[in-house]
Structure formats: structure tokens, C-alpha cells
Amino acid sequence: MELTSLISSMPTLPLFFSMYFSIYLTAHFIVFRNWSPKLRPEAASCLISLAHGTPAVLLACLAILADSTHGFASVNTRFQNTVLEYSIAYFLMDLCHYLAFYPTDILFIGHHLATLFVFITCRYLVLHGAYAVLILLALAEITSFFQNVWTLASARREDSETARQVFAFLSPPFYVLYSAVRGFAGPLFVYKMVVFYSSGAADNVLPRWLWVSWISVVVMAISVSILWISNLWIELYRERMFKIEKDKKST
Predict the structure, then answer these.
(1) CA-wise closest residue to 216 among 249, 193, 185
(2) Are 172 and 236 in contact (CB under 8 A)?
(3) CA 9 to CA 12: how far, in whole Å?
(4) What gap in Å lies between CA 5 and CA 12, rounded to an integer?
(5) How many CA atoms lie within 13 A of 219 on its CB side?
(6) First-to-last CA distance in the chain?
(7) Which of 14, 130, 219, 230 has its CA 20 to 30 A from that of 78?
């Protein structure tokens, strides 16, 4: 059986959610059991994000390449729907995490709800548009591995020299990659989406209100990402300048 057929024939949303839930519990009670209770929830969230991110990129690319008729208005294939459910399960699990541990974090909760709106309407409402949604998913998750390792190192850099070194080593290349994806590749693809959908070529399969909603969600997400990475660049610059000035004074 081909890989795409094997994956498509698997039980989908309940299985994937159970998988993420199991990983989350394993992270809490085994992998990060020696971490402080304050850091453990964030670390557990990072572990399920690691389980989702890179596999989601690979699966999204495979699902798109397996469909020779893919396009902005093409009908979803079974494999593409499976990949959508793989991501829906992750965002549902991480949403539960935020509601349980960080119920006042409106930004992340809003992000997850908006992302779920896009995935769920694509998968269950219109059954079209997975090509665009999966490319956006791949662009969003291609930095996931580096971001999660960076986040874990950041959480422990005050009490671990190894974590501090990993954080310092990863920061510049991670910032560059994240900036390129969120500041250039993402906006470029969104522009192509707007050009296609605004032409009316997909009006018979995607209602105008829906694709406008999708674009709005993505533009807001990209804008927040650009603001976030800009602040990190500023912080890195200030830290480097402070270190330079400190070294000058010590010589």
C-alpha cells in the first residue's frame, strides 16, 4: 500500500487527538517531571508542538504533491483532509492546554480559535481550498522545530548553562529563518491567494465571506508574528550592544 493511501486510511481526528493527549501527559509526568511546576506546562506544550510541526510540514507537502490537480479552487483529497485533521487535533489539544493553564492569554487562545476556524471550515464545510491552507500550514510550521527548541532553552537559560548556550547559539539563525518565512514567503503567498480568489474563479466552491475570513485570519497572524520577531531582533541588538559596552569597560 502506498504511503499516502496508508495514512489516508487511518482513523483520523479522535486518533490524532488521543496521540497528542498522550504526548502531553507523557511530557508532564515523565519527560519534564523534574522541571519546576511553573515551567512544566509550557514545556509540555512545546513537546506536542514538536510532534506536530515538522511532521505537518512533510505531510502537507506530500498531500499537495500527491494531487496532480491541486490548485486554489481544487477539491480536497482524502489525504489532504487527513492532514487537516492531524493539525485540527493538535490545535484542539493546545487550546485545552491554554484554557487550563493560561486562560487569560487571549492572544494565543484567539490565534488557536481563528486557526481552527480556517481548518475546520476547509475540512468539513466547503471541502475545497486545502491546497492553500496546507501551504500556509507548511510555511507556519517550517520554523516549528527551531522555535520549540529555542523556547525550551529560553525557559531554562537562567538556571542551566547548557540551555543558555543553546539559546544564544540558536537565536540569530532562528530569527533569520522566521523573518524570511513570516516577512517574505508568507505575505507573498497570501498575495497570490488574494489575486486568485478576488478574481471570482473560486466563487462556486468557496463563498466570498469565507475566503475573506481566511485571508483576514492569516494577515492578522502574520502581522502579530512580524511584530513578535521584530521585538526579538531589538532585544538581541540591545543585548549585544550591552555586552560590547561591558567588554569595553572591562578592558
Answers:
(1) 193
(2) yes
(3) 8
(4) 13
(5) 11
(6) 67
(7) 219
Backbone angles phi, psi at 51, to 5 degrees: -70, -25
**pLDDT tens across 31-65, in order?**
999 999 999 999 999 999 999 999 999 999 999 99
Model pLDDT for residues 212-245, shown as the tens digit of each residue: 999 999 999 999 999 999 999 999 999 888 777 7
d(C-alpha 239, C-alpha 219), whole Å:
30
* Cα 186 off chain centre by: 13
Cell numbers at 117, concatenated: 476556524
In the Cβ-directed half-sphere of 5, how many Cα atoms lie within 13 Å? 2
SS3 of residue 75 by DSSP: strand
Q: Could you tell me the pTM of the whole model? A: 0.91
Of 97, 67, 93, the residue nearest 82 (C-alpha): 67
Q: Which three cell numbers stand for residue 50?
A: 514538536
Q: Is the dihedral of CA 90, 95, 97, 102 positive or negative?
A: positive
Residue 120 φ then ψ, to 5°:
-70, -40
